[in-house]
Amino acid sequence: MTLKNDRFLKALAREPVDVTPVWMMRQAGRYLPEYRATRQLAGDFLSLCQSPELACEVTLQPLRRYAFDAAILFSDILTIPDALGQGLYFSEGEGPKFRKLIRSAADVRQLPDINVASELEYVTDAVRLIRRELNGAVPLIGFSGSPWTLATYMIEGGGSKDFRIAKQFMYDNPEAMHQLLDKLAAAVIDYLNAQILAGAQAVQIFDTWGGILTTRSYQDFSLAYMQKIVAGLIKVNEGRAVPCILFTKNGGQWLEAIAATGCDAVGLDWTTEISLARARIGSKVALQGNMDPTMLYASPAAIRTEVATILQSFGAGNGHVFNLGHGITPEVDPAHVAAFVEAVHELSSTYHS
Predict the structure, then answer these.
(1) Contact yes or no for 214/248 (Cβ under 8 A)
(2) DSSP 8-state secondary structure symbol assigned to residue 31
(3) Using an 8 Å Cβ cutoff, are 126 and 70 in contact?
(4) Is 94's pLDDT higher than 80?
(5) 20 to 30 Å CA-CA from 147: which of 8, 187, 300, 346?
(6) Is 171 a catalytic site residue?
(7) Beta carbons of 97 and 158 less than 8 angstroms apart
(8) CATH tag for 7-352 (out of 1.10.3210.10, 3.20.20.210, 3.40.50.300, 3.40.50.410)
(9) 44 in catalytic set
């Protein structure tokens, strides 16, 4: 199927485009009233994720409102730990929780092997359905959490302010932590490849909590496993390259190491100046980012000014995918998202002449 709009994939390949492509992390989510209505119909968040039809619906909702240059599969980064029997559930206002925790080497050894094709079939079914419904309008992005990020949730039992338990486990039981990360990396490879074969045209690895680590620990316990995943991914499908984006929140100090993994693009949060990132690694990979998500609470005029500033910081040339530096937050006015997307497309054309 021919893509009607492939500027996102072209930008990831650092090929010429007419305007800078834009999408938004968590673009299918709680800031949209139609999403909230669909979630209410599903009954709870996990049921929404596990229904291919409803996951397809919420994936498409933002594309009906905005001229995004890519769709991203609606799912959750914690599907793999759930398939491993950790008992994922969501408490209202508290985020994800697990009923079963990893607290010892024995707990790691007892984790089962999972068959992605059967146990996460609802995800690949959603990918196939979304691709069919997109009908070539824009590319579809698949995704997974990084092994380190998944491990932190499995050990902590949920989110954390300091990740004390996960980091203590890493320091006291490094062998067990490596065994856990090895298992998770293998599962992520299978999971992302299954998404690619089902129709995902690019994939992103969300290393949400890599930035809490020291440089040595990041290299050993996070980046090494993402590099293993990149090496194990399907590189071409449907006659076209399938690019991989790595995003480590608060990872700006490690850009060169991230770019050296073999990924096609590096995601930037808002703490990294994009001009400096381009000077450091932009000749090797595309860059994705990096507006502060809270900027979307500002006026449309202020949003437009910030978009112009980031575009100017990146400068002329190829290899930039505009995005937020992290996910959009629920209280944002949907009209501000429209101002954001329109500003990116309107103001970026002069950088691609």
Answers:
(1) no
(2) T
(3) no
(4) no
(5) 8
(6) no
(7) yes
(8) 3.20.20.210
(9) no
Dihedral of CA 98/102/108/110: which sign?
negative
Q: Give the tokens for residue 341.
A: 């997307």
Q: Is 76 a catalytic residue?
A: yes
- Out of 76, 207, 220, 269, which one is annotated catalytic? 76
User: What are the C-alpha distances in Å from 98 to residues 95, 123, 170?
Assistant: 10, 20, 19
Per-domain residue ranges for the chain?
7-352
- Considering 26, 131, 278, 304, which one is annotated as catalytic? 26
Contact between residue 130 and residue 200 where contact means Cβ atoms under 8 Å apart? no
Active-site residue flag, 30:
yes
* Token digits of residue 214: 């020291």
Q: How is residue 345 written in tokens?
A: 């497309």
Specify the pTM: 0.97
User: pLDDT band at residue 93, thresholds of 50, 70 and 90?
Assistant: low
Instruction: Respond yes or no: is residue 109 known to be catalytic.
Output: no
pLDDT attached to residue 268 = 98
Active-site option among 31, 35, 66, 153: 153
Task: Name the token pair of 256.
Answer: 């060169």
pLDDT of 111-144, one tens digit each? 999 888 789 999 999 999 999 999 999 999 999 9
Q: Is the dihedral of CA 290, 293, 298, 299 positive or negative?
A: positive
Tell me the pLDDT tens digit for each residue of 216-274. Answer: 999 999 999 999 999 999 999 999 999 999 999 999 999 999 999 999 999 999 999 99
Q: In angstroms, rounded to a whole number, what is the distance separating the alpha carbons of residues 145 and 200?
A: 16
User: How many CA atoms are closer than 13 Å to the CA of 112, on its beta-carbon side?
Assistant: 11
Closest of 274, 256, 263 to residue 311, by C-alpha = 274
Give the pLDDT band of residue 95 (cuts 50, 70, 90). Answer: confident
15-33 tens-digit pLDDT: 999 999 999 999 999 999 9
Q: Mean pLDDT over residues 277-299, rounded? A: 97
Those residues whose C-beta lies under 8 Å from the C-beta of residue 324, and which sit 6 or more positions away, are 24, 25, 270, 289, 290, 291, 292, 293, 296
Residue with tokens 């009906």: 64
